[in-house]
Amino acid sequence: MSDGGEPTVSKNKQHRKEKLSACLDSDWDFTITQCCSWKIDPFQPSDNKGGTLTEESSFATLFPKYREKYLREIWGAVTKALDAHGVACTLDLVHGSMSVRTTRKTYDPYIVLKARDMMKLMARGVAVNQAVKVLQDDTSCDIIKIGNLVRNKERFVKRRQRIIGPDGSTLKAIELLTNCYVLVQGNTVSVMGPHRSLKEVRRIVLDCMKNIHPIYRIKELMIRRELAKDPKLANESWDRFLPQFRKRHLKTSEKTAKKIEKIEQKLEARKAAGLETTKEELLRETATKKKVYTPFPPAQQPRKIDLQLESGEYFLKASEKAAREAEKKKQKQAETTEKRRAERAEAFVAPTEQAEPTVEEKRRKKKRAAMESEMDAEEPEGLEKSKKKKRRVKEGEEDSGS
């Protein structure tokens, strides 16, 4: 509030834009809810009090080359469906276009727009028996363009596949919850169904292309469907029942706890493997070195031309440069070939084997053992005792030294 008691209005453009979009969304929801609660009666020729239309309206739609064969086969069925509403249609195979126009038999002024939508759907790959349903008053269509939402081609393909899901399960769930027909084709998503559901499907598709998984919206739709069955909650806010999916940022204490848990797991694994390591050593290994702060910017890196000037490559002719590049390439190939040959040769190296003693070696060993036993038997008892004493003294010295 200002000093004069008048409310202050924010002049920030972003604030105004957000406020306007919020108002439009709420108005749209209210309008759609009201429209869906009304009973829509079919438009009859008696409802047109003005008689025949004074001007001819026409629309043309291009179609891709691969749809030409299919459209030629089913064009009879398309003509028959539009004749019932007094709309004429033309298939131009030379320019690759389909056109619809009103005739003197047309009694519904809006049907030509419905016929145009039908042509668009057929051009985007929808079957004729499904596209004809858009001519009904309670059915609308929406063609969502998704081609320019993601720059990376691989990322775009993955996110588009996410809309379909494994074996089409996600797409089936969207269709069941919204009572819509959804077709993902190329850079567009074609949707047919009630007015209210088109907005839900558009939101799911656009959020999916912004890397928000469709399962979150599907869960929300399932909860909304259950809440709609309860008449007590008709005039209440459903925000307390709906899930709030937010990105959870870990606190510093939680990050530290996770880090310590990982270090303890590593310690246990190393103990089990028989390696002795302390907690401090592991912390030193995992700790990142802090950079020393300097107010000065880093030194400028040399350009490619500067490096060529230093090496003298800049002054070489094009043929000499090509020859040098070829030489480097050959040298690299030779090194790689040699390395691979050595790796392959390792498989053919025979392992070292311990040869078994021959018969003569066994005989010599037996003779030596027999001679030593005879010599021990011939030695007097005094010498044997003195030897034992010396052994005991040596063992004692070794124990005291260790």
TrEMBL record:
Residues 325-402 are annotated as: Disordered. Residues 325-346 have a biased composition (Basic and acidic residues). InterPro entries: KH_dom (IPR004087), KH_dom_type_1_sf (IPR036612), KRR1-like_KH1 (IPR041174), KRR1-like_KH1_euk (IPR048550), KRR1-like_KH2 (IPR048548), KRR1-like_KH2_euk (IPR048549), rRNA_assembly_KRR1 (IPR024166). Keywords: Nucleus, Ribonucleoprotein, Ribosome biogenesis, RNA-binding, rRNA processing. GO terms for cellular component: small-subunit processome. One of its GO terms (biological process) is rRNA processing. Residues 140-210 form the K Homology domain. CDD domains: KH-I_KRR1_rpt1 (cd22393), KH-I_KRR1_rpt2 (cd22394). Transmembrane segments: none annotated. GO terms for molecular function: RNA binding. This is KRR1 small subunit processome component.
